[in-house]
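Components:
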Amino acid sequence: MKNKIILFSIACLTFMAFKSLKNISFEVPKSWPKPHYDFTKNPLSLSKIELGRVLFYDPLLSKNNTISCASCHSQYTAFTHVDHSLSHGIDDRIGTRNSPTLMNLAWHPSFMWDGAINHLDMQALAPISHPDEMGETIETVVPKLQVSKNYRSLFYKAFGDSVITGQHTLKAISQFMLTLVSANSKYDSVMRKQTQFTAQEKNGYALFQKNCASCHAEPLFTNLQFENNGLALDTTLNDYGRMKVTKNKNDSLKFKVPTLRNIEFSYPYMHDGRFKRLSDVLKHYTSGIHHTKTLAKQLEQPIILSSNQRVDLTAFLLTLTDKEFLFNPKYSFPKNNLK
Amino acid sequence: MRFIFYVIACILLCVNVLYAQSNKKYAITFYPMYGESKLEIDSSYKLGVNDHIQIETLKFYISNIELLDKGKVVWKEQNSFHLIDISNEKTETVLCNIPLTISYDQVKFNLGIDSITNVYGALGGDLDPTKGMYWTWQSGYINFKLEGKSNVCKTRLNEFQLHLGGYQYPFNTLRSVVLDVAQNEKADISIDIKQLLKTIDLSTQHHIMSPGADAIFVSENVIKIFNIHKIEK
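Structure:
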């Protein structure tokens, strides 16, 4: 009897050890808020993250096998579209918005410039099926994956099942996106008291806190809300943002506040990529605000910055660059598994 | 030691008997109808004098099935989500583990998917987004999908597409249906598309593809077309 108990305990312990090896925990940077994503519903594992990464870089997800997620979300620009104001998809079709950066998504309660997507798992469905992006459907992607020996093996490793489902495909893509955490910029080192700002950066930080931080709240550098930041309507696009989702006119011209992390590399700026340079952005906030009913209350009074202050503020914004994130091989093309 | 063995054997036997009993599945079957006749895909039906209708797609979610007796819930299906798709007859019969001995006088279910499930993330089975019942451009399940042709629709190929969904206030389209079941009846359910189409002006209301007032209006009418299916003797 005793022997059986001991054997049983050993079996339990081995099982638990195996399980902890397989599932890995999500690391929340020190003093950051609790993530919004519920990891208990989709526990991270190395094999699932790797599968998600392969899917992220695979053009098979598009109708004519030419466009992958990475086409419009390139690592070196904080996962946005290099140098394109409006992102383009299959057959050189042009969309209506600038692809958002992908960083620290575990903290986001909604996705897209208008918040139309309610959960990270469901996010990938939108670009996969948009006719100007990947022009495909998840109903077709799954059988395309199923015929691939490589994917059957990757799904088996990740989920213990080589029968591919929409649910598993989406959860794997989520897992890769969840690992895209940028929390190691100079700003973060300063906050951890490992280094110090220069005098100019320090001055810029004070200006940031006074003028920008209510919307671009630390440490994510976004309050995750929808705001009208005073951009005049582009009548070639007629994009009213959040209002399309809520059908509420109080949401007219509101867009999700983007993070400022890695802003040095994520140009062009705004939902339609209308500004190429950071100096254009600062010019907009200091002298270009277009006053309409739904304008963010923080922007009702003009922001006044001297040319020296603009230089200082820019110096601070450059401390949000996280080279470790931008060049981390964990996030790059999965050359071992994408065949 | 021997005593423990007997006890375990007894427990196993009881579990087995109980399992065998509960394993007698009680099924609820949905009967898609067009008036008095069974609804067939691509058959032509008459609506008004000059209005010919063809149905190409009818898919809808039934969730949270409950049985009531004198207003009290006597049985409730766990994890109750079913996609009924008339192009796939297998889906029309919903297997529920209802104990045969239970007596009830009402059946209750939801048409559509509740808001908690709508924001849950990626789900499998009937809720897998590959089922074609999930909006990709704006998150949320399509609760009810009816597509077809009518010569009153002045649209391309006379097509109409009614995709009803929306889980957020003020455009929540989830509705519940309660039907009385007589003593000698089985809780099989018919859904009469003719009755629904009579309440819609297809010449103007031929495309609904997002949450809003139109989706709510039609959803209110959809719940009225469910009835206990009467078997003709």
